[in-house]
Amino acid sequence: MNAAARPLTVPDLAAAREAGRRLVMLTAYDAGFARACDAGGIDLVLVGDSLGMVVQGHASTLPVTVDDMVYHTRCVARGLRRALLVADLPFQADATPERALDAATRLLQAGAGMAKLEGAGPKLEAIRFLAEREIPVCAHLGLTPQSVLRMGGFKVQGREEAAAAALRADALAVAEAGASLLVLEGVPSALARAITAASPVPTIGIGAGPDCDGQVLVLHDFLGLDSGHRRPKFVKDFLAGGGSVAGAVEAYVAAVRDGSFPDAAHSYE
Ligand code: KIV
């Protein structure tokens, strides 16, 4: 598809996978960076609840509210013409299907084209509820930052066989419930490869190795900014090699598309 042609749609995601064209996703929280993403050919822009850490300076994503997400989604939407805008349901906004519908409706009315939520199990009901009500859903499995208290930190998930099997089953379950896209975060490359091979919907990796259908990075990591937190292994500073924000976006898009990012140095065994 011609990158300048028209706004990307949800069916285009499956078509890209079918065509073997990797999807490139980056987070943004304001109109200026959204414009830079769009101009550089980023396919999906995520207003992540990571904004709680990289914009608001919290130690986790838990303090982020639906109002925060709506505000930043509106800002980003004003900067986009082509990229599909995905916005996170923040902590507990998806605790019940009804709450998820209220929050996701606000995000779509603010300009998002898809709502993302973390987890499977009790979240399957919310995924199904949204999907059946014309709200495209992106699921998020593996290292789910909203589970930081239970996980005891931001830790790679699915290393033991039982945990890997549970993740493989969850990936099928979220797609069956109606998710159109699946983010896999912080899982060993071999597990992400197996999940991607079995998944009915495209997968987007972050710390999940090179074999997902696309990749996502958090903007501040991609720019090499000190977030005040330990730098995960998968993070790459594209600004260092790109020379400018536009150059960094161009380098990132090219590296994801040709499969050179992430390499083994930016992946987990
Ligand atoms: O909030 C976020 O930025 C995310 C990405 C890490 C995928 O969920």
From TrEMBL:
Binds 1 Mg(2+) ion per subunit. 3-methyl-2-oxobutanoate binds at residues 49-50, 88, 116. One of its GO terms (molecular function) is methyltransferase activity. Its EC number is 2.1.2.11. GO terms for biological process: methylation; pantothenate biosynthetic process. GO terms for cellular component: cytoplasm. Coiled coil: none annotated. Keywords: Cytoplasm, Magnesium, Metal-binding, Methyltransferase, Pantothenate biosynthesis, Transferase. Gene3D superfamilies: Phosphoenolpyruvate-binding domains (3.20.20.60). It comes from the Bacteria. InterPro entries: Pantoate_hydroxy_MeTrfase, Pyrv/PenolPyrv_kinase-like_dom, Pyrv_kinase-like_dom_sf. It is found in: Cytoplasm. Pathway: Cofactor biosynthesis; (R)-pantothenate biosynthesis; (R)-pantoate from 3-methyl-2-oxobutanoate: step 1/2. It catalyses: (6R)-5,10-methylene-5,6,7,8-tetrahydrofolate + 3-methyl-2-oxobutanoate + H2O = 2-dehydropantoate + (6S)-5,6,7,8-tetrahydrofolate. CDD domains: KPHMT-like. Belongs to the PanB family. Catalyzes the reversible reaction in which hydroxymethyl group from 5,10-methylenetetrahydrofolate is transferred onto alpha-ketoisovalerate to form ketopantoate. Homodecamer; pentamer of dimers. This is 3-methyl-2-oxobutanoate hydroxymethyltransferase. It comes from Luteimonas salinisoli. The gene is panB.
